[in-house]
Design a protein that fits this description.
There is one protein chain. The protein has about 190 residues and is α+β, with helices and mostly antiparallel strands. It folds into two domains: about 110 residues, Alpha-Beta Plaits (2-Layer Sandwich), CATH 3.30.70; about 60 residues, no CATH class. It is built from five helices and five strands, in the order E-H-E-H-E-H-H-E-H-E. Helix 1 packs antiparallel against helix 5 and helix 3 packs antiparallel against helix 4.
C-alpha cells in the first residue's frame, strides 16, 4: 500500500470478487458514480506480496486488513488495449520508417523500396504482436493467481462515511463478498 494508505485515518471499502466481469462492472459503476480511479487499488502480484510480508498467503481474505500488503493501481482494460496497440504499432513504424530512409539514401528502385518497407513493417508488427501477447498473458496470469487464492481483492478509498457507504452499495450490487469498511471513521 502507499504510505498514506498505511495511515490509520484512511477509510476504505474492501471487497472480494469471484470473477473479472463482476470486478470490472463494479469499477465501471464506481467511476461513473464519481469515484476516482486513483482511489481504486488491487492486490499486488503474489511474488510482491510474499516479498513484502515475508511469507506466502493462502487466501486473499487474510490480507484485507493488513496495511503492509502491497497493492497496485487499477489499470483499465482500455489502457491495456492501448499499450498493446503501441507495442504493435511502434516497432512496425520504426522498422518501416528506418527501411524507407535506408532505401531512399541508397537510391533503390521505388518498387523495391515499397516491398522492403512493407516487409520491414510486417516484421516490426510481428515483434510488436509478440510483445502485446506477452503483456496480455502476464495480465491474465496475474488475475488468475488471485482467483486461485480466493478472489480479486479491491480497496476503494472513501472521502467520508457517506462515500464509503456508497462504495459498499455498489460493491455488493456487483456480487462482491466480504464487503466492508475498514480504517478510521471520518
Amino acid at each position: 500500500m502507499s504510505p498514506d494508505q498505511t495511515n490509520s485515518s484512511v477509510r476504505e471499502a474492501v471487497a472480494v470478487f469471484d470473477n473479472v466481469e463482476s470486478l470490472q462492472g463494479a469499477i465501471d459503476e464506481l467511476e461513473s458514480s464519481g469515484f476516482d480511479r486513483a482511489d481504486l487499488s488491487l492486490l499486488a502480484g503474489e511474488p510482491a506480496v510474499e516479498e513484502k510480508l515475508g511469507h506466502a498467503y493462502t487466501r486473499v481474505e487474510e490480507l484485507e486488513e493488513d496495511p503492509k500488503v502491497p497493492t497496485v493501481a487499477y489499470v483499465a482494460k482500455e489502457s491495456i488495449g492501448g499499450a498493446e496497440g503501441a507495442l504493435i504499432g511502434t516497432p512496425m513504424y520504426i522498422a518501416a520508417a528506418t527501411t524507407a530512409g535506408i532505401m531512399a539514401v541508397a537510391g533503390g528502385p521505388i518498387a523495391l523500396t515499397i516491398a522492403a518497407v512493407a516487409a520491414a513493417g510486417a516484421a516490426g508488427g510481428m515483434i510488436g504482436t509478440i510483445l502485446a501477447t506477452f503483456l496480455d498473458r502476464h495480465h491474465a496470469e496475474y488475475l488468475q493467481e488471485q482467483l486461485d487464492h480466493g478472489g480479486l481483492l479491491l480497496w476503494v478509498r472513501a472521502r467520508d462515511e457517506a462515500h464509503g457507504q456508497e462504495a459498499l452499495t455498489i460493491l455488493k450490487k456487483h456480487s462482491a463478498h466480504d464487503v466492508h469498511l475498514h480504517g478510521a471513521t471520518a
